[in-house]
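[job 4417] fold queue: 2 targets
>>> target A
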Amino acid sequence: MQTQTTSLLEHFRSQKLEIKNIFKEFAKPIFNNVFFINLAALRLESEFYEFNNNNWSQRPTIFCMEIYEEPLLYPIILLVNNIKSFLEFVPNNLAITNSNQHVIIAPYRSIINKILSTSK
């Protein structure tokens, strides 16, 4: 049987520059992270999605793939929704509307890129 290996370094190197820069931001201390600094702007410039898909439960990458067509935007989704881990990405841990619907705050891609462009 043939052995299969995966190199995380190679995987990271093959990502788009946008994704590399997002992960560089999240490698910084939280108070230096441009997404944390601009958290209010991210939340204001967002679309709200009702958490009505069981496939999203504990899978923010699946949510990001469906909404942005890019699964590796999940750190921003977790930050904006005040979620600390994949395991907490469930409806009960998200914001609730007046009509008792749990919603995911998903910043517009344009605001993500605008904030990322301010990074040093």
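>>> target B
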Amino acid sequence: MKWKILAFTAAIMGILSVMACESEKGPEYGFYRIPVDSIQVAEDIQAGEPFEIRFYGVVGTDGCHRFSRFDTEMNAAMLWVEVWGRRATGENIACPDVMVFLDGQPLELTVDQPGEYVLEIRQPEGDPLERVIRVKESS
């Protein structure tokens, strides 16, 4: 009989702990593409050597917005970059009243082959931001 009471009590405790965890959900996140105002990239890029691109723009209009990640693609003549942000959503989320900026968020890339490439920053709306970069033979 003792074992039945212990098993029943353990089962009830397990159910209650699962229910408590479900009721204490954290924030959910919505992801969105960040509009990029401008970029900085080195003039002298060497093939096979990492180089940095710095990004500038408004991430969001309150403290629930954050930079999330870069998505990149590359082919023989193009480099595509998307800049992604995330916004906390859900009940009981307090968003500080502050503007959030990219502030030179760095992305490090390496191009293995010398040549001329079009760097295209995909925007959430409208035309992409484009820059031609020249990659020189490594010395």
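[job 4417] complete. Note on B: The CA atoms of residues 5 and 97 lie 53 Å apart.
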